[in-house]
UniProtKB/TrEMBL annotation:
GO cellular component labels: cytosol
One GO-annotated biological process of the protein: DNA repair
InterPro entries: HAD-like_hydrolase_sf, HAD-like_sf, HAD_sf, PGP-like_dom2
Keywords per UniProt: Hydrolase
An example Gene Ontology molecular-function term: phosphoglycolate phosphatase activity
Source organism, top-level taxon: Bacteria
UniProt protein name: HAD family hydrolase
Length: 223
């Protein structure tokens, strides 16, 4: 694997990059649709969880359009509320895992003087809650979410983060095409994560490198 120029900072997506989202969402997904049915807001069958997993990385409004396009705006709005509520409840119960080697790899990057950030299209309480509960929050200088800043795209979110923290050279690390676009549009090197298993064909086209385990990230640093 070709090594890349050493970055001043590394920006990470959260779901499918640092956090094994399906380990949390299997339970959350079922609970959301059980509740929507009990409240008579959505009476169709529960959509396959793969539909939700395949939509991760999108903005929430776009996720529900894809997962339940036939639902009313009220049902989609309620699904937003329930998704966050149940994610936080399940996290507090200890559900959900980081990918193998995440903590150790982040520690090594920090030891090399590299600044670490999270940039995610998720809701603020979730994007800040996962690192907190999993014991890695203190490793990040900033945690930015579309939910907090109301950004219309990941390109905009990453630009805002770079400007705020005065970052000049960075890597963008993520598993979705939105991460590739956000990195490239902001002049960053992009590392695609090909281990989550719910990306589409060609999802990481345009990335400068693709890794198949999280610790492989270190092999891209100059010696």
């Amino acid at each position: 694997m070709n090594r890349l120029p050493s970055p001043e900072a590394v920006l990470f997506d959260l779901d499918g990059t640092l956090f094994q989202t399906e380990t949390l969402l299997e339970t959350v997904h079922r609970r959301v649709f059980d509740t929507l049915r009990s409240e008579r807001l959505y009476l169709a069958e529960t959509p396959p969880i793969d539909k939700l997993l395949g939509s991760l990385g999108m903005l929430l409004t776009d996720i529900w359009q894809r997962v339940m396009p036939d639902a009313s705006p009220a049902a989609q709005e309620r699904a937003n509320v329930l998704l966050l509520q149940y994610e936080l409840e399940e996290l507090a119960l200890g559900r959900g895992s980081l990918y193998p080697g995440v903590r150790e790899t982040l520690d090594t990057l920090r030891a090399r003087g590299i600044r670490l950030f999270i940039a995610s299209n998720g809701l603020e309480a979730y994007v800040k809650g996962v690192p907190q509960v999993k014991g890695i929050a203190e490793l990040f200088e900033g945690t930015y979410s579309a939910g907090e800043f109301g950004t219309a795209s990941k390109v905009e979110l990453v630009r805002r983060l770079l400007d705020t923290f005065g970052v000049r050279s960075a890597w963008m690390v993520g598993d979705r095409s939105s991460d590739v676009e956000a990195g490239k549009s902001n002049g960053l090197s992009v590392i695609g994560c090909d281990y989550a298993g719910f990306g589409r064909e060609g999802e990481l086209d345009g990335a400068d490198a693709v890794i198949r385990t999280f610790p492989e990230l270190l092999s891209l640093l100059p010696e």
